[in-house]
Specification:
By secondary structure, the chain is α+β, with helices and mostly antiparallel strands. It contains 20 helices and 13 strands.
């Protein structure tokens, strides 16, 4: 792989693009995971990742995302044990990663040698790459559903595409709660306990913080949410919403699994699903569940990566912001090379670089070549359209009109209640903003994506998969979100 081949691929292939805040050190293991997938099942041939100023684009070929999902479906249809074996292997990798994170937690870092610290950091990266690799097969599920499953399902059952999406979302939803739902249920119980002045409230608060201190992490930063932080949010929630609204939301969340089972059974009976569709939705349910588990592990592991980086920074006397831009192979030699070497290298990467991973290795490009690739990648997202089309992920209460607010990093950008949230793709740290949004619009995502699932849970209108919303719209634009047609119109 070289610069010329990357340019040629970008110009001649159709790309699935996702973007978000990150530093190279925390996004490197997931990036490597896209190629490591090939060890366990069908994977990607190449991933291209333009990075600049703590922000990254992820470019994967759309056709490969569809091929991977189709490969899994055919394997699952033939042998239900095939994918389950991979899940079982992932569970072992996940446990090994979790156990190692706990070992780091209990370690007295200040007392271990430099070599031991580096070995610990490298081992964490190694375990993280292995854990991340198998769940990445779920990454292209949304594209596969939108490109192949939904149109075929619509035609087979003679229903419109919007109804097909509704049915698929119900049938592919796993019977269980996401980690975001679990945290929310625990938080709402805290609010009720605080309002009722329960004597065990402090114990409950400490336990909630212990379980979910990582809930607002992302690839670019971590934040330990202390019991006092959660207490502040509890007080705000009870004051702003009132106890009856909180109890009502808790009741809905607690009955959601029962209601989902009822909806699934009714649909299966109504549609008399053929064997191939039963196998398909069984697989999709597993993929959605696996994707959720992967996100949870990412949020937790990122905490420990940053935890070790802080100690490495302290000992090497290299500022943390530069350590965060280094790869494991850089860290391996950090105590044996002149620190300015790493500082200058990190600075050059922050200005702009391209990391390409492929089956035979990886390639890092900087300077003019990186700028050229960055320009082409960003041009793939450009648009000046007055009307955007997407997939309706949630009807909410129907069409809405409101002002756009584009948010790429929810930790750094302001968002006001009843604005229309526009972003590339939502992630767990977006949930507080999503709760305040009048509607949600994303560039990417399928009907099994985070934005689709959470918007339905919240009852908020949501259109996903517009491809270019963050480029075509501007902050303050007055738009109509038409969830009957999947159209966003600028109002002049």
């Amino acid at each position: 792989m070289n610069y010329e081949k990357i340019i040629n691929l970008l110009r001649n292939e159709k790309w699935w693009i996702v973007e978000g805040p990150c530093v190279l050190s925390t996004v490197y293991p997931p990036i490597k995971g896209f190629i490591e997938m090939n060890r366990y099942l069908k994977g990607y041939s190449i991933g291209i990742f333009p990075c600049k100023k703590r922000y990254t684009l992820q470019l994967l070929m759309e056709k490969e995302s569809i091929e991977i999902a189709d490969f899994l479906y055919k394997k699952h249809l033939k042998d239900r044990k095939y994918f389950q074996k991979r899940i079982n292997l992932w569970k072992a990798y996940s446990k090994a990663l979790t156990d190692y994170c706990q070992k780091i937690e209990k370690s007295a870092l200040s007392k271990i040698s430099n070599n031991s610290l580096i070995r610990m950091y490298l081992k964490l990266n190694e375990l993280y790459i292995k854990e991340f690799s198998i769940p990445l097969c779920a990454e292209g599920t949304g594209i596969y559903v939108d490109a192949k499953v939904a149109p075929e399902f619509s035609k087979y059952f003679n229903i419109n595409l919007s109804m097909a999406h509704d049915y698929i979302l119900i049938l592919s939803s796993p019977i269980g709660r996401s980690f975001i739902e679990e945290e929310r249920i625990g938080f709402l119980k805290l609010c009720i306990a605080y309002y009722d002045k329960e004597k065990d409230f402090t114990k409950m608060l400490n336990e909630h913080s212990r379980k979910y201190f990582w809930i607002r992490n992302n690839y670019e930063r971590t934040e330990i949410i202390s019991p006092n932080d959660f207490l502040i949010h509890v007080k705000e929630e009870t004051k702003d919403r009132g106890i009856n609204a909180i109890k009502e939301e808790l009741g809905k969340l607690q009955s959601s699994i029962k209601n989902l089972i009822k909806k699934k059974n009714a649909l299966i009976k109504k549609l008399s699903l053929a064997k191939k569709y039963k196998a398909l939705f069984e697989l999709l349910s597993k993929l959605v569940w696996l994707q959720d588990q992967r996100k949870k592990n990412m949020l937790v592991t990122t905490h420990y990566l940053f935890f070790l980086q802080k100690e490495i920074s302290k000992r090497s006397k290299i500022p943390l912001k530069y350590v965060e831009e280094l790869f494991p192979d850089d860290i391996k030699h950090i105590f044996y090379k002149e620190k300015n070497f790493y500082i200058n290298e990190a600075k050059s990467r922050t200005k702009g670089c391209i990391l390409a991973v492929y089956r035979d290795g990886e390639l890092l490009l900087k300077g003019k070549k990186a700028e050229n690739i960055m320009f082409i990648a960003e041009s793939l997202q450009s648009s000046s359209e007055e009307e955007l089309n997407g997939i309706v992920a949630s009807m909410g209460n129907g069409n809405v009109i409101g002002n756009v607010r584009i948010v790429n990093n929810p930790h750094k950008e302001k968002f006001n209640k009843d604005e229309i949230l526009v972003t590339s793709m939502t992630r767990p740290e977006f949930v507080p903003l999503m709760r305040k949004a009048k509607a949600i619009i994303t560039n990417e995502g399928g009907i099994t994506s985070h934005a689709a699932i959470v918007s339905r849970e919240l009852g908020i209108p949501c259109i996903i998969g517009t491809k270019v919303a963050t480029k075509a719209l501007r902050n303050g634009d007055l738009v109509e979100v038409n969830v009957k047609e999947g159209i966003i119109r600028k109002i002049k």
